Amino acid sequence: EPEVTQTPSHQVTQMGQEVILRCVPISNHLYFYWYRQILGQKVEFLVSFYNNEISEKSEIFDDQFSVERPDGSNFTLKIRSTKLEDSAMYFCASRDRLNTEAFFGQGTRLTVV
Amino acid sequence: AQSVTQPDIHITVSEGASLELRCNYSYGATPYLFWYVQSPGQGLQLLLKYFSGDTLVQGIKGFEAEFKRSQSSFNLRKPSVHWSDAAEYFCAVARTGGGNKLTFGTGTQLKVEL
Q1: Gap from B20 CA to chain A (nearest CA, Å)
Q2: Which of A74, B59, B67, B80 makes a 20 to 30 Å CA pair with A62?
Q3: In 3-state terms, what secondary structure has residue A66?
């Protein structure tokens, strides 16, 4: 069964450093998303991406965040200068044009120290 | 703006007992509705979804959910819980147009007593 793959599974970084979280969506999917879940809290939408551009973003997704689809398979989330409050589980998701069901990856746990 | 309420933060049931997890949503029209399950340290797995049609939907692992428009609810049920069902359950809603971003509830942590 096709699945969304995220790497790394866990990343520890120092405050102020840049991090890139990577995702390989399901191959025929066209809509891509990033969500985050701060420990003990609910899953929150960050950004959606379609046709090589951001289609929607939340207020959380400020100038420190960016997304990119550098090639035909990867979808990345970059945090330019990490803060302690960026520590969370980050989930990538994708869906295809015809199906509104989103498939989630296993997540990347980001710890900012 | 759409929102989802899961009024039960924690629920404990005995193995073999029935289960109902509550979910209420707020949205101007009929949304797409979902239940996801998250085991400790794991990602989000889709249990079931409602787009349209039959208001009683069947999912994986023996779960079902019923959409009740009059109550703006989409409660998750299982007739007989197994110990492996212990996990956190999230109800989510998506707009029927646009980018279909998901809005999640705060989750219900299910504990199963043997």
Answers
A1: 20
A2: A74
A3: strand
